[in-house]
Amino acid sequence: MNQPQSYLSSARSDLRSEPRLVRALIIAIAVIFLTVFVVLPLVVVFAQAFSKGVGAYFAALSDPEALSAIRLTLWVAAISVSLNLIFGLVAAWAIAKFDFRGKTFLISLIDLPFSVSPVISGLVFVLLFGAQGYWGPWLQSHNVHVLFAVPGIALATIFVTFPFVARALIPLMQEQGTQEEEAAVSLGASGLQTFFRVTLPNIKWGVLYGVLLCNARAMGEFGAVSVVSGHIRGETNTMPLLVEILYNEYQFISSFAIASLLAMLALITLVAKTFLERHLDEGQLPRGN
Amino acid sequence: MGLTLTWLSVIILIPLAGLFLKTFELSPDQFWGILTSRRTLNALKISFGLAFAAALVNLVMGTIIVWALVRYRFPGRRLFDAIVDIPFALPTAVAGVALTSLFAQKGWLGAPLAELGIKVAFTPVGIFVAMIFIGIPFVVRTVQPVLIDLDAEIEEAAASLGANRWHTVFRVILPSLIPALLTGFALAFARAVGEYGSVIFIAGNLPNVSEIAPLLIVIRLSEFRYADATAIAVVMLVASFLIIFAVNRLQRWAQVRIPAH
Asked: Which of A123, A228, A239 should be substituted to probe chain B, the one whose Cβ sees the most B Cβ atoms within 10 Å?
């Protein structure tokens, strides 16, 4: 990512740079903007969470309601990440290694959940499974609960996190081409052997990258889950939903304590992402052609 | 292949088809009536108008940030580069409560602003602020790689042909960034239009004043007015289809303009 800085280029660099004052101004604007709009909101979460001391913080987190929200969030993330991992691998494999009609359409379909409002992502499941929905009455008569229950939350989360793994893998697999797989197959490897011994090791960092981002979004999703959850206390509240409920009840310490866990998740995700990006860059270098 | 298509249709196609089918249960008059009711129109105006304004701010500030990150060396540059991704990574509900407490009347920024007579939290300005927060990484991350890859020789040629720095930047560099800038703008706009979590806490949610369209969908759902919710959702969905389409065209345009290396 860094530009090579040779002595030659620094001799020419005055042609490519601005007066010192302009430079200082641009840096100042960038730093102030990012501090006000991005750093301060993050700091405020922790400041509020610990504003009544460490004891109150941990008391808020060990509340049964908080614990049940944490448990539900972990469950939902585990379900949606593993299903989307399988799908993402298969979809990326199909798109990158084979040619077929409608490929561009398929790619834009995969991208769709990224650009749809999370509220709409939740709404579509209400229309399918709700009391007035297409399958709602049938489900009700068979005593199956989807909406306002864990299956609905999982479905909505799968919908919004659908693109992450596939999106991380498609460019990587396209770049790697099919030579290695062809070699494996011509040496007598079966399809599955080729996949697990040749393809998967080549894309392992990409897989981790997709899973990481998918997991972060799955644990943090709010809009879609809020529409389908029904907010049943201790049963269908995920962590982000509990943040909202406690906040609206003016229980700021508890609300920000749970928010701080989610903020830490975001920070860890970012650090891991930077680490993985470095691996991905390295992995791609020798394959330049 | 088969698995891909099956999974895709179960998770994405069927739900979306359900949304459109539900809309066709309405007569055109009903549909039109819902959309042109005062509250719906205002909510759509607020969501689209403020998202557009916020995306404009992000376009300008994003360009300045990219310029500082790519062209200059300053202490903490790598840290600030990483920080740009926080709005992507931070769950929207967390961003919502954080921004609200920051800009509330007794908040770190809200208090000094209140002394100046500026109220941010629980007004449309608050919505605007939240939309800026959520959109900034889109512009930065779309423009950054393009500016890094920009050929130094074009600038040097411009300079050696006698263009001053101002001319080089505005006549040579910025025009070649236009496809990336427009893509970043469109992505930030699309995200802000549909944004829910980070906005509803700070918005105040007064009907006709500070009520965004996604919130109105949620309200209609909780009132069991599914038809109303669906009609608003379809309009927003069509808008986001159009934006994706525009972005795809933009990217093709960029590839034609700048031949691949």
From this structure: A123
